[in-house]
Write a structure and sequence with these properties.
Low-confidence stretches: 1-45, 73-78
Strand order of the largest sheet: 4-3-5
Largest sheet: 3 strands, mixed
Number of strands: 7
Number of helices: 19
Strand content: 5-15%
Structural class: mainly alpha
Length: 455
């Protein structure tokens, strides 16, 4: 029997589909596909068998309509007659409206639906929830470069040279972000100390000793000296005495237990630079001296503020005597600056005046006046120190006069000379003491007053 059906606007004949009939005479004898037409043969004796055959053929054609079935060189494609249907095309929909009920042409969904997140990632850095635990945020500061570290360390060390507080300097250095470059702190401190006075080098040695174990380790100090040894050829250009200074720093670090004694011997064996071998040789010599560890405490000398007053007075007296014998103002100035006692310069003025009064010599007066004028012009001796020195002499004149009877006359002449040189102010000149009673000589002089001590 031949039947035809219309599927998707095409005439399809059901043929070639057969099925074996069961006991009641109803069955499908076979099925086949020939071109675009499908023929299904059934037994006309059973209506039920005819319905089953049509149903099965429709299922087959429906399946073929979903897929492109190649037949020879052509492809069979069928179009859906439910063009505007809202049913899902995959056949697995839940029956819900598309896009949450906000579908349609040119519509992407409900307003704000693009901000919805279906899956919430707990590890997302932007994840925020009221129920999550407190999040601790840490500020990450990048480590400083060598140039940045040098610019930051230099003002800290220079300030330390002014106040001398190692604890304050350690706190300032600890704030710098240089975890892997701590040895650079020691290196920059020593390089700065090379261009300063011995007292500042002593302060640097004390700072290294205080930083050891707190901010830097033994490896950091050893690495700093290693870098300095390699840079000696460049350091000598600015500081010709760099090998000697570095040797003193190295020996002092060993004496302060910041480095082991074997460091000097071990490094000397593998040193390639001649300047480095020279520095290591001097350091080894200082350490091998008798009581060398004790002597190294004063390897930089005693600072001006720590010296006894008697020692300072003696050194000032010796440099003035040397100046009177040589007449070299520059050498005298250098010795005065090296004493590093600007607060005690009034003692220098006092010793100069007493020496001039006791000399009773015009040449001594001229030399002392030139020295005081040079020191005053260079602001090595300030106006306050100059006035205090002269006023101390004015107060001690009664005692000085016992040893030098002509002290008042010599003082007046010297003050007048200093006034012409511009060393003294008018207030000091007004306070110059004068002898209340004129001293007459013996009768052999005819009663003449002896006013000029050089007559």
């Amino acid at each position: 029997m031949m039947d035809s059906d219309v599927i998707n606007g095409h005439d399809v004949d059901l043929d070639g589909v057969s099925e074996e009939i069961d006991e009641n005479g109803v069955g499908l004898s076979g099925a086949g596909v020939d071109g675009e037409r499908t023929i299904i043969e059934t037994d006309s004796s059973s209506v039920n068998a005819d319905a089953r055959i049509k149903k099965k053929a429709k299922r087959l054609i429906k399946q073929l309509s979903k897929e492109a079935v190649p037949i020879g060189s052509s492809v069979v494609q069928t179009t859906r007659h439910w063009k505007n249907s809202r049913r899902p095309r995959n056949g697995f929909g839940r029956g819900l409206p598309k896009k949450g009920g906000a579908g349609g042409k040119g519509v992407w969904g409900k307003l704000g639906s693009e901000l919805w997140e279906d899956d919430v990632d707990m590890r997302d850095p932007n994840y925020d929830s009221d129920t999550e635990a407190d999040v601790e945020l840490k500020t990450i500061i990048p480590e400083m470069t060598d140039e940045q570290l040098q610019k930051a360390v230099e003002p800290i060390i220079l300030e330390y040279f002014e106040h001398g507080d190692t604890a304050e300097a350690a706190l300032s250095l600890d704030e710098l972000n240089c975890r892997s470059k701590r040895f650079m702190l020691i290196r920059f401190a020593i390089e700065l100390a090379m261009d300063h006075k011995p007292s500042h080098r002593e302060m640097t040695s004390v700072l290294i000793s205080d930083l050891y174990g707190r901010l830097v380790t033994q490896k950091d100090i050893a690495k700093a000296f290693d870098v300095l040894m390699k840079n000696l050829p460049d350091l000598i250009l600015d500081t010709p005495e760099a090998p000697i200074i570095l040797a003193n720093f190295l020996a002092r670090a060993v004496a302060d237990d910041c480095l082991p004694p074997k460091f000097v011997r071990t490094y000397r064996e593998k040193a390639e630079c001649e300047h480095a071998r020279q520095a290591l040789g001097r350091a080894e010599t200082l350490l091998s001296l008798e009581h060398g560890m004790t002597r190294l405490d004063n390897v930089w000398g005693v600072g001006g503020g720590l010296r006894p007053v008697k020692s300072l007075i003696r050194q000032m007296s010796l440099l003035l005597q040397e100046y009177l014998s040589s007449g070299d103002i520059q050498e005298a100035t250098r010795c005065i600056v090296e004493l590093e006692v600007p607060h005690f310069h009034h003692e220098l003025v006092y010793e100069a005046l007493v020496m001039t009064i006791e000399a009773l010599n015009r040449t001594t007066e001229e030399k002392m006046c030139k020295l005081l004028h040079s020191l005053y012009s260079a602001v090595i001796i300030t106006t306050d120190m100059m006035e205090r020195g002269f006023l101390r002499v004015f107060e001690d004149m009664p005692d000085i006069c016992l040893d030098v009877p002509l002290a008042y006359a010599v003082l007046e002449r010297f003050v007048e000379r200093c006034q012409k040189a511009g060393v003294l102010t008018d207030e000091v000149i007004k306070k110059v003491p004068t002898r209340g009673r004129k001293r007459f000589v013996s009768e052999g002089d005819g009663g003449r007053v002896k006013s000029d001590p050089y007559v």
